[in-house]
Design goal:
InterPro entries: DUF2534
Keywords: Membrane, Transmembrane, Transmembrane helix
Helix content: over 70%
Distance between the termini: 18 Å
Shape: rod-shaped
Largest sheet: none
Protein name: Inner membrane protein
Strand content: under 5%
């Protein structure tokens, strides 16, 4: 059994994974940027470059981790167990 069988199931899995990535990136951006603005009481336009870079990498890392974790059930749903072709 191939890990990613060719065809519609694989395409649907990757589309669902892309949707999860977009959703987690939006949620992480709202949480991390909003939290930094509330914590430091600084408007977004006055941030130093180091804060932009650190916030960007936090969003990138957290979004990728949550996307990978939430892709596990998607893999079982879209690809999961394939019926064996050699049933007698």
């Amino acid at each position: 059994m191939a890990m990613f069988p060719p065809g519609k199931k694989r395409r649907n899995f990757f589309i669902a994974q892309l949707c999860v990535l977009i959703c987690t990136a939006l949620v992480m951006t709202k949480a991390i940027i909003g939290g930094a603005i509330n914590e430091y009481n600084m408007p977004f336009s006055t941030w130093p470059v180091e804060l932009y870079v650190s916030e960007f990498f936090m969003i990138l890392i957290y979004s990728s981790v949550f996307t990978l974790l939430l892709s596990i059930p998607l893999w079982y749903f879209f690809i999961g167990e394939q019926p064996s072709e050699s049933q007698s």
